[in-house]
Amino acid sequence: MHPPVRLVAIDMDGTLLPSLAQQVSGRTARALKAAQQAGITVAIATGRRQAYAAPLLGSLGLRADMPLITSNGAVTRTLAGEPMDRCHLDAAVARGLCGLLRPFGAVVFTFDRDGPGELVLENIQQAHDRIALWVDANRASLREVRPLEDAFGDGEDPIQGMVCGTVDEMKRAEAALRQSPLFASCECARTEYAARNLSIFDLLPMGVSKGRALEQLAARLGVGRLETMAIGDNWNDVEMLEWAGQAVLMGNASAELRTMAKLRGWKQAPHNDEDGVAVILERELARQAAQEMQEAR
Fold first, then answer.
1. What is the value of pTM for the model shown?
2. How far apart, in whole angstroms, are the C-alpha atoms of residue 50 and residue 269?
3. How confident is the model at residue 235 (pLDDT cuts 50, 70, 90)?
4. Mean pLDDT across the chain
5. Strands (DSSP E) along the chain, which ranges?
6. Which residue, of 185, 204, 223, is where some domain finishes?
7. Half-sphere exposure (CA, 13 Å, Cβ side) for 146?
8. Pair (197, 95) in one structural domain
9. What is the count of structural domains for the chain?
10. CATH at residue 41
11. Least confident span in 61-75, 116-130, 243-257
């Protein structure tokens, strides 16, 4: 039997959030608060940056010291914005990635600063054609730089990069990176939304992933691997799921990931549109309550 969960890391899009929604359901919000009240550290682990993730959580009544692992593990801060960990992608590597990956889709780099220029890309319209909702939500932070290589002229290193396009385009982008010498200087993570034929290919500093960030967070909190749960739905969650002693894959994950889950003994949650995260947290809280009652006898 698994020990009680003391830390749970939860992906956001396709996991915490319902499909095509920008609001956590009432049931899931209650489950998050109940977990915190029971002494479980609830962490969000997302490909989104802090400014794009925190507003979705700020009205839920959650603890201000709740950890947010953002930019696929490059930055960890609390919900209130207090820094915990941060990594950067070398500017020289970022310049090389521009030329390598430009043919495959819209390339965007994220910098750790507020306002216009936090997100830098060459062509806003090109990105809008693929991820219109994201562009509209982040327009105040976007700045066009042509060529994109000039965005790194002041020596400031980005936190991460991403390329967006069709599923096939991003598979080819990943293949091109893996065949390039640049692959030895960065990490990558691909997210797929097959129903929309949309894929995001994230470019990260060496050694950075949601899994590594979760491991570091657990060490900071003094929580063991077997006491850590991770819940996710996509390819960029795999390292996090592999590290956690208690891994849960969402029911809306791809068939390939569901097969992987069976082979690796991961549990499966209901669909994200069926409050899958809430179901898992409620079960864990009930299990802990039953165990406490049994120990009290």
1. 0.92
2. 26
3. very high
4. 94
5. 7-10, 41-45, 67-70, 75-78, 83-86, 106-110, 119-121, 142-144, 160-165, 187-193, 198-204, 228-232, 246-250, 267-269
6. 204
7. 5
8. yes
9. 2
10. 3.40.50.1000
11. 116-130
